[in-house]
Amino acid sequence: MSDIRIKKVETSKERNTFIRFPWKIYKDDPNWVPPLIADIKERINKEKHPFFDHADMDLFLAFDGDDIKGRVAAILDENHNTRHNEKVVFFGFYESYNDGDITRALLDKVCEWGEERGMNVLRGPVNTSLNDECAFLLEGFDSPPVFMMPYNPPYYLDLMEAYGMSKIRDLYAFLMEKNEKADRKLETIVKRIESQTNIKLRTVDLKRVDEEAEKIKYIYNHGWENNWGFVPWTDKEMEDMAKKLKQIADPDIIALAEEKGKPVGFGFALPNYNEVLKKMNGRLFPFGFIKFLLNRKKIKGIRVLVFGILREYRMTGLSYLLYSRIYKNALKKGYKWAETSWQLEDNEAVNNFVMSIGGRVYKKYRIYQKNIG
After folding, report:
1. Is residue 309 within 8 Å of 221, Cβ to Cβ?
2. Which residues is 363 bridged to in the sheet?
3. Domain with 163 in it: what CATH number?
4. pTM of the model
């Protein structure tokens, strides 16, 4: 066994090393999209990010001599464990070379960290929760990831299984491209539903982003409450998201459904900013921001992140109305394709809906788990 040493990240220099390590892993991978360094710094900032109002995390680096060979985060989300009556320690931000000794040393450290806090299950990856980027890419390594979706070398799957991890859930990503047959079917369904409902659809108003975000949070927290792994957004997390929305949202592809003024559903999509981020090498300044502005209007894809519908409206066909609004507006603005992601493999209602409007599974992702202690 190699002489692997695990070091907790404690200094700003070590934190920067942690953040920059993926550039070594993916230096020859044409499909990797470098994350924004500023964004990663914010997401792991325990003093400022609202996730850490209900969670704890430590970062670790793996060394072989003086050479860095891997990294991982150990995460304990009190809101998750309370809601699901579990004792889970999550691992996240995992990166390493293809060496089982490195994986073992990193994940053993997460297990040890979790056991010290009374946890008995290791699960991941999540960066930092299921409301963020999560899972390892399982199928679909032939194209870059879309915005806020993970990417990794195929060997990570082998490393996890060699460590004794097993699948807890697979996630699906669907590719949506213009399809005349599916379009005609969608139009027929939408016309029928519109004639039978009083529900009104509109795009979000970013001038009232805090008020709009509160409506989305209400629908999300009530509409998703029984989904596997779901943890509701807190008020501070929603405020943080609303602030970011002002900077990156395209309101024409975010649809809000209301009945008599009551919010009952939403469809949330974002431009696929990875098409721009791929050219920025992780930095907004000094020249990355210029690249961002020059290329933002050239984006061809969107990511449909989430549909939220209150339980009592799920059988009304509202999902078709929401998708139709986003789809038509996206085409008008010049977008050419969409990824709908992610969906739980066993969420048959959602998966059947997406396939009924022309979607096909083109990427799969896996979350792993192992009992510890």
Report:
1. no
2. 173
3. 3.40.630.30
4. 0.94
